[in-house]
Design goal:
heterodimer, A: alpha+beta, Alpha-Beta Plaits, 9 helices, B: 69% helix, globular, binds iron/sulfur cluster
Chain lengths: 289, 426
């Protein structure tokens, strides 16, 4: 009787053998990001490089870039210029090693009819041959890097937090995948790995950072992080560089001479999305007037 | 000390052994449950290997029927207090010997709750990140960390109360008051807290107007105090018919009074909610519209919510009318309230909060087969636990399983013969 019982349990557990992503002992034991000493971190980065190499056959360069002093990043997007070509969406996928199947994208472009800001009127899945279309404007939405981020508040294990340069990051090795932050985010900016992400090896971007674009595993959360692997090394985010209309502006708001400071000082109309819920985004939409 | 430990071990061993004896009805019931549990385990193994992609959830609707069941069961667990309050505060005699069945139900319900949260995790292997000391608990900011604390606390409280009272009864001695009364009163407050905290889980999200309403908390309590005692009414009748345990109709009717009042309050709060959503007609009504009427041609939840409302209304009418003093109609009313509230708390509260998304997209959700099997597995496991708890506690309460008859063969399910001989020992 006991034997049949055990056999039945074993049989029902069989699907476990189909598992592709087996957690190693080191992965299981890995400490929380903020508790890692520099030596721990060096070891972890090396281990991750090894893991990526084993899986994709490419040796990446994984760094742990920290926020710079006296820097607070802010994004601004010119709604008068954006033509809705979605080049930013795809540049982001390539830069940040997002899963191609199932598809994960951090930026969602809404096609909005003129004269309204009611998001429910927006079209998420437009497939126009020619953009821009008459009578519409286009509004790309991504993580707004809130000053007061609900996603951080709700996370039960502190796996996501706001750094001093304003970027809210996720420790992919600490997230337990409860998806509470996804429910809490008012901008639908978070994406969950419902299964093991798949990225073609030849498309892998080897310039990686721990809190940024290193490959994620099944069952964890991810989202836009203003390309920390680039911006903390003095470069622009990938979405900005690829934008053919120059609609995207990015920079250090603490520097009064930066382009972004100038824009926010001089543009007569700019706005934050859903200002009424008090998240105070670091992402502004403005118009040429 | 050593004898005490030995005695306790003997007690546990005898209880465990009792769980394995019963008549054919007992064996077939347990057999069916075990098969369903194994099917659920198999489905969960698939999910563990391939990820939550085997469920119907998506980035748009990121919580589904797991969290819906969790929410419902927190209510069931909390409702055990509705038996405790009459007994310990109003000294209700009829219910006195039955409270323990309510508390055991709470234990089984919390076990199911914890399982539903666990299967919802993308990385269950990292659950230790939640343990204070070992991991990082975002307390007090995250409502989910509050929930972890209150649920586990409530589980411990109830396990202690039931375990202690049963062990005393087994040894045929009077329980020491200070060793359980303070816990009983903490459990009463605690029960309200588990449900309030679970409601706050939703209420606290400013970006989701459907949940971000203060009425959600009170509605949670009202519906819990309807569905919970309704389940207990049904469970008590099953216990009565299978074990000869003395349960009076009067006790059932006391519970009927609770279900009745709670249901009226529940329906009243529903009316308040619907009025607020629809009369003012602002843009935040989208989720409610999706739920009750359908939105832009999407109406997956509409038949569900209207059945729920119909069930609740019929149940309310039955409960108010004197016909439900008869057990037949009372049972119909109980079943209708349980199903109605399950739909309303589960599908009706969790899912529409996600539709439309904060960016206005409408993506619908239907649970997958695999997800459904996992749910059935957990329910079967919960029922199995509850059955075992009852199987152990009924003979103890009847005095057929006690320290006095140690060494004599274990009592069968129905032999009341031993009862007289045992009571004479005391
Ligand atoms: S936009 Fe969403 S994910 Fe980004 S910081 Fe704000 S709440 Fe968090
Ligand atoms: S999914 Fe991960 S990051 Fe989000 S709340 Fe849960 S543990 Fe935190």
């Amino acid at each position: 009787m006991l034997a049949t019982g055990l056999a039945a349990v074993a049989a029902s557990l069989k699907p476990l053998f189909e598992m592709e992503d087996i957690t190693s002992a080191q992965q299981f034991m890995q400490k929380y990001y903020k508790e890692l000493t520099p030596e721990d971190m060096a070891k972890v980065l090396q281990r991750i490089e090894g893991e990526v190499e084993k899986e994709y056959g490419v040796r990446p360069h994984v760094r742990d870039l920290r926020p710079m002093d006296g820097v607070e990043f802010v994004y601004a997007l010119n709604l008068s210029r954006c033509i809705g070509c979605r080049k930013c969406v795809h540049a982001c996928v390539a830069e940040n090693n997002q899963s191609r199947s199932p598809e994960i994208q951090y930026i969602r472009v809404l096609k909005m009819p003129h004269g309204t800001f009611d998001l429910e009127k927006g079209d998420h899945n437009y497939a126009s041959e020619q953009v821009p279309e008459k009578g519409f404007f286009y509004m790309p939405v991504q993580c707004q890097q809130c000053h007061n981020p609900p996603c951080v508040k709700v996370c039960p294990v502190n796996a996501t937090w706001q750094e001093t340069d304003g970027i809210t990051v996720i420790d992919y090795n600490w997230c337990i995948g409860c998806r509470y932050c996804e429910a809490a985010c008012p901008y639908w900016a978070r994406r969950f790995n419902f299964t093991k992400p798949s990225i073609p090896a030849e498309r892998l971007n080897p310039n990686m950072s721990y809190l940024g674009n290193r490959p994620r595993s099944q069952g964890v959360m991810e989202k836009c992080h203003f390309c920390v692997q680039r911006t903390r090394a003095g470069r622009y985010p990938a979405c900005l560089e690829v934008c053919p209309t120059g609609s995207r502006k990015f920079g250090n708001i603490l520097d009064p001479n930066s382009e972004i400071s100038q824009i926010l000082r001089t543009k007569r109309v700019f706005m934050q999305l859903k200002e009424d819920i008090g998240t105070n985004p670091r992402f502004f939409y403005y118009f040429d007037v | 000390m050593i004898t005490a430990a030995r005695n306790y071990l003997v007690f546990l061993r005898r209880c465990a052994r009792v769980a394995f004896v019963g008549d054919w009805r007992y064996y077939s019931w347990m057999g069916v449950l075990t098969v369903i549990i194994l099917l659920g385990l198999n489905a969960y193994a698939k999910q563990f290997a391939h990820g939550l992609i085997v469920t119907g959830m998506s980035d748009e609707v990121s919580w589904g029927v797991y969290i819906a069941n969790f929410t419902f069961l927190v209510g069931v667990a909390a409702a055990a207090v509705m038996m405790v309050i009459p007994v310990y505060i109003y000294d209700n005699e009829e219910l006195h010997d039955l409270v323990i069945f309510g508390e055991l139900l709470a234990v089984a319900a919390i076990i199911m709750c914890l399982m539903f949260v666990t299967v919802d995790l993308g990385r269950p292997d990292r659950f230790w990140h939640l343990i204070p000391g070992l991991g990082q608990m975002n307390f007090p900011a995250s409502m989910l960390s509050w929930d972890v604390i209150v649920l586990n606390g409530y589980l411990l409280l109830n396990v202690h109360i039931c375990g202690y009272l049963l062990y005393c009864r087994y040894q045929n001695r009077k329980p020491t008051k200070w060793f359980y009364i303070p816990f009983v009163f903490s459990a009463i407050i605690w029960a309200v807290s588990i449900h309030t905290v679970t409601a706050f889980l939703y209420v606290g999200l400013g970006g989701r107007p459907f949940w971000n309403a203060s009425i959600v908390g009170p509605r949670f309590l009202a519906s819990a105090f309807t569905a919970g005692p309704a389940i207990i009414i049904l469970a008590l009748q099953i216990i009565r018919s299978t074990t000869h345990y003395r349960i009076t109709d009067k006790a059932l009717l006391t519970l009927r009074g609770i279900v009745q009042v709670s249901m009226i309050i529940n329906v009243f709060l529903l009316v308040c909610e619907v009025f607020k959503e629809f009369y003012s007609g602002n843009l935040h009504v989208a989720s409610a519209k999706y739920l009750f009427l359908g939105l832009h041609g999407h109406h997956a939840l509409v038949p569900w919510i209207w059945s729920a409302i119909t069930f609740n209304l019929i149940a309310m009418v039955l409960l108010v009318l004197p016909v439900s003093r008869g057990l037949r109609y009372l049972n119909v009313a109980c079943v209708l309230s349980i199903v109605g509230i399950w739909i309303e708390k589960g599908m009706g509260l969790v899912i529409p909060g996600f539709i439309p998304t904060p960016l206005g997209a409408i993506v619908e959700y239907t649970p997958s087969l695999n997800e459904t099997l996992v749910c059935f597995g957990i329910w079967a496991f919960g029922l199995l636990c509850y059955t075992i708890f009852l199987r152990m506690s009924v003979p103890i309460l009847q005095g057929r399983l006690s320290k006095a008859n140690e060494g004599i063969s274990e009592p069968g399910p129905n032999d009341v013969v031993a009862e007289t001989s045992v009571t004479s020992h005391s």
